[in-house]
């Protein structure tokens, strides 16, 4: 039986290299925004939950004392170690594991972050509760994810499931904030940005089921007229460009 | 391969007990599980852990 874990492993084993070299995701400015919003400093110890190719983990490692990257997919962790080597970083460690339960004691880290992973979680509320558990008092819990406008979320998620069958559901910003309250965290500070890209590049680093790539092109083309997907799809130089709405939520662990 | 920072923080994901680190595996004496270390990376998956029969 194909489980959600099987779907994750299948997608992310194939995505490991193209995902980590995609220009939009690699965007140093977006990484800097996350590190700065987390108020990271030289005394911090960081856990990156579902770290993927370790871009966020490495961005933190440049400014903090020590970082740990945890991911379910061995191919992603292998890629992450390559990224670490390329950047000459040594204050890092990697583990294979699940977001629930995390293999760390209470209060083990001063910053616990997860980027572009919550939309893959079957139980995001439980994942955030685990992140809070392993975050020390006075630390920060940070979630970064696609955050579609409430009235566009269904269309956005339907497209994302076609593009990546391991996608569960991206939540609107309000719902993400609600998760923080449910996990016993205070109101998060929120910053937003657009993750820019173009459709053919997006499809190149995705692995939709056969035939679904045409459906995705059609959805983006239609969205140029009515912005049904909420990604600001627009034709530019023979391409269709877009900007995924992304929210960076940071809460203090009181 | 396993750095000291990691040894200080890693616990058993199942019981949150302290772990014993060996060259190629990590043991939870409390709930008697063995977690493999593959290519230098601890595999902290409860359902991939093997039963531990040592003492």
Describe the structure.
The complex is a heterodimer of chains A (254) and B (55). Chain A is globular, with a radius of gyration of 17 Å. The mean pLDDT of chain A is 94. Chain A has a single domain, classed as 3-Layer(aba) Sandwich (Rossmann fold), CATH 3.40.50. In chain A, strands 1, 2, 3, 4, 5, 6, 7 and 8 form an 8-stranded mixed sheet that branches. By secondary structure, chain A is α/β, with parallel strands linked by helices. Helix content of chain A is 41%, strand content 24%. Chain A has 10 helices and 8 strands. In chain A, strand 4, helix 6 (124-133) and strand 5 form a beta-alpha-beta unit. Chain B has a single domain, classed as N-terminal domain of TfIIb, CATH 2.20.25. The mean pLDDT of chain B is 92. Chain B has 1 helix and 5 strands; from the N terminus they run H-E-E-E-E-E. In chain B, a hairpin with a 4-residue loop joins strand 2 (25-28) and strand 3 (33-38). In chain B, 11% of the residues lie in helices and 29% in strands. Chain B is globular and about 25 Å long. Chain B is mainly β. Chain A binds chain B through residues 45, 66, 68, 70, 74, 77-78, 91, 93-98, 101-105, 108-109, and chain B through 2-3, 5-6, 9-14, 16, 38-39, 41-46.
